[in-house]
Amino acid sequence: MSYFAIDIDTGEKHDVEWFQIKRKKVALCPICDSEIELRAESSIVTSAHFWHGKNSICTSIKKNRKKYEDLPASQIDKEAGKKLREDVKNNLYTIFLTCNALGEGLKYIEFKELIFKANEKMIWDYKGLQLNYIPYILILFHEMFYAKGSKLRDEKFYFVLEPSIKYFDDLWNKQQSIKQSIWKISPDKGVLEIIQIKQNLDPVPEWFKKATEKLVI
Ligand SMILES: [Zn+2]
Fold first, then answer.
1. How far is the CA of 5 from the centre of ligand 1 (A)?
2. Domain termination site, one of 15, 33, 58
């Protein structure tokens, strides 16, 4: 189930309403690239959404979500891992800020848990891993960002990678064939947002830039 799709003719991303207005029944999934079908338009119970068909492996579908902390690496590099650990330590605040923005208010105590998970799996030693991927990897480990009790989140969500990833290091070592994005998924609505992995750590999160645009000082 998804509320976003790619128009086959233009390659542009649009929401369900756009496809309804244009009377287009088939589109492409932004995650797995397969054809998806617009469904339940006349249903009162279920709002219109895109359907993958049976047996889809797409990670936008709740049951296909992977436990990313268990995704293995194809190669380990202990030497590079030592240096990366130092880099992570020196950039912890920036990494936290990025995680905080992605998770719409991820708390420090939750961030610490994610670091513990990363330590446990020794992801720092995954071959070729670079600093700019760290916030995205950490955020994939967080089980659910609940809306209840949060002032920033409109609905609960979690993050996924595209389904074809077999080894975690495919993400940074096979940049040509693996999409350099993470997807924000609602367990009820499917794809909420596509987030491009940035090539550098961004010290100022988007929500803060936006929130402070009109702040008079
Ligand atoms: Zn898909």
1. 9
2. 58
